[in-house]
Amino acid sequence: MSVAASNVKRCRVRGSTFPDVEEALVLWLKKARTKNLPVSGPLLLEKARFFATQLHHDDFVCSNGWLSRFRARYNIATRVISGKGAAADTDGAEEWQNGQLQQILTDYAPEDIFNLDESALFFRLLPNRTLVSKGQACTGGKHAKDRISVAFIVNMTGSEKPPLLVIGKSEKPRCFKGGRLPSGVLYRSNTKAWMTAKIFEEYVRLLDRRFAAKKRNVIVVLDNASAHVQVENLSAIKLVFLAPITTALAQPLDQGIIRAVKQTYRKNLLRRMLLSMENNKSYAVELLSGIRLLAYSWQQVEPST
């Protein structure tokens, strides 16, 4: 969420106990919206606390109730910039999970059961909700076309996260020169930044060698996407492909983990942009910095997610 404050009154608003805090906050919000930076409710509260401290208001109580009153005083509403949804066969997924899948998983400990899934990430794209003055059009910032594909893999307990696989369009991105990928990330490329059967097989064989070196036998559950081919002669990994109708509901990664990673990534990206704004600096999101932020955000996602 973010506030577009171009039409917000700068004078003291009736009913405000701390008008100086609110005026400072509104000016900050106006600056953020000038740069098309969305600001979430929690971030708004955090900034309000900061201004209250700077202005020596020790009795300032920054709560969700205060935020609601602040938004009402300044005629601020929430707008959705964009969004999409998906559906799946709930009955089919439940039948699969309670029947065939459970039977397959019986011989494996929870820490040896992994889920692998891919998702696209627009690594320059900010959060898709914004707080705006009522009646104001919600145009958002410049929508980035920079898309990468990311393969996530995590075990059932959330205690183990093998290397992420990032797939970009450039084989040798210029921003990689002089910089290193973070540990726990692999990078591959093709012209469309998509997972291919060749990249998938290479990735699975790499994971297989790692598990075999630790003398482990694991199972990897994944959907039946065209790039997910059966890989022969694996030493440590058993691949289990889900039926098409159950994919979205039978995979933990599809049920909220990947969404949590993306939300965390965009919050981290926004915080860095806002910090740069406050210091009158620009923050350019290159592929390498985006991958580093992704790796950091992935580690922030708790096992309980």
Structural write-up:
- The longest helix is centred in the C-terminal third of the chain and has 22 residues, at 257-278.
- β5 and β6 form a beta hairpin.
- Helices cover 37% and strands 17% of the residues.
- It has helices at 19-34, 41-54, 64-73, 90-105, 197-213, 247-250, 257-278, 287-300; strands at 3-4, 76-80, 113-122, 129-133, 147-155, 164-168, 185-189, 218-222, 237-241.
- Strands 7-6-5-3-8-9 form a six-stranded mixed beta sheet, covered by helices on one side. A three-stranded mixed beta sheet has the order 1-4-2.
- The model is unreliable at 1-14, 80-88 and 129-144 (pLDDT under 50).
- α7 (257-278) crosses α8.
- It is built from eight helices and nine strands.
- With 305 residues, it is of the alpha/beta class.
- It has two domains: 3-74, Homeodomain-like (Arc Repressor Mutant, subunit A), CATH 1.10.10.60; 90-126 and 137-300, 2-Layer Sandwich (Nucleotidyltransferase, domain 5).
- Its main location: nucleus.
- Residues 9-80 form the HTH CENPB-type domain.
- This is Transposase, putative.
- Keywords: DNA-binding.
- It comes from Ixodes scapularis.
